[in-house]
Fold:
Amino acid sequence: RFDTVNGDLTDTYIKVNRIMAFLIPALMMILNILIVAILWFGSVRIDAGNMDLGALIAFLQYAMQILFSLIAMAVMFIMIPRAQAAADRIEEVLEVKPEIKDPVYSIASSKERGYVAFDHVTFRYHGAEEPAVKDISFSAGPGETTAIIGGTGSGKTTLVNLIPRFYDVESGRVLVDGIDVHDIPQEKLRAKIGFVPQKSVLFTGTIADNLRYGKADATEDDVIYAAKIAQADEFVSSMKDGYNTMLSEGGLNLSGGQKQRLSIARALVRRPEIYVFDDSFSALDFKTDAKLRAALRNETQNATVILVAQRVGSIMDADRIIVLDGGTVAGIGTHKELLGSCEVYREIVSSQLSQEEMA
Ligand SMILES: Nc1ncnc2c1ncn2[C@@H]1O[C@H](COP(=O)(O)OP(=O)(O)O)[C@@H](O)[C@H]1O
Ligand SMILES: [Mg+2]
Structure:
């Protein structure tokens, strides 16, 4: 599909550029012939004595100004349809109605806190043939850590994205605190969840601004406390302007691990009931990773933690490990249980152990 569109675009561009390639030299040719003609006829008249040099030069200048205006006008006529098309596209985007709508009647909030449950959830991306996740069921409560492991493309990110309702499920239900996420106003739902995405999103502004995003009224102490847990305090403090250091768009002036730590700190500042970490430790070295996890365990004792991980070593002590394979659950249980019962899990474990042994 992409190839045909791309081919189309290439053809159009080649055509346009061919026309331009003829048009521009042709225009230049006319322009230059005109200049030569003016000079030629002018010089003949000067020679004959009925015109002086100043008048010729003035005439030439005026002629050039008029000609350039004409060219500018021609360019305008090229630009207007383009601008029109661009404006249409922008309008299309602005007019998109969000697919995720708030419930008309929201169910009175429940007293439960920090419960996440999936009830036979199946989800398919728009236009995809195969569901990205199929028939997922599990539940997690406060004080528990649920780890999700599986190969690339097995649906880990998709699964965790369903918790804050970034997408609507195709069938089944996602429950947060016992209520279907359909029936919770988005603002309320997302306030419960501290979501650390796979790709950290930082914006232009100071580090403190970035950490306060999501809880604008956080005090300086809150921010520093969260940064300490996320093992970010050290490198932030060593910067010249500390927490007032300006970040460029996307945090280009930071390393991957530093971005991940800031993004974790941002979630911690909000102190949500539910933490979701999507592969948020992948760019950290072993030592930082271990320190961060120890601090995090302390901080999130009473919260619900759902984390996507790559390394078996870092999830062995989770209360529940969900093994995903091609969008389906290959097994749910503790490390020990899965070693005994789940072939896919054994494969992941043995491949990582042998890798570490080789290293
Ligand atoms: N935005 C999207 N649109 C369409 N398909 C997607 C999108 N994101 C992921 N997928 C597909 O869904 C499957 C699961 O992807 P993902 O959840 O990102 O896996 P993981 O995080 O385990 O690597 C993959 O086959 C991927 O190609
Ligand atoms: Mg992922």
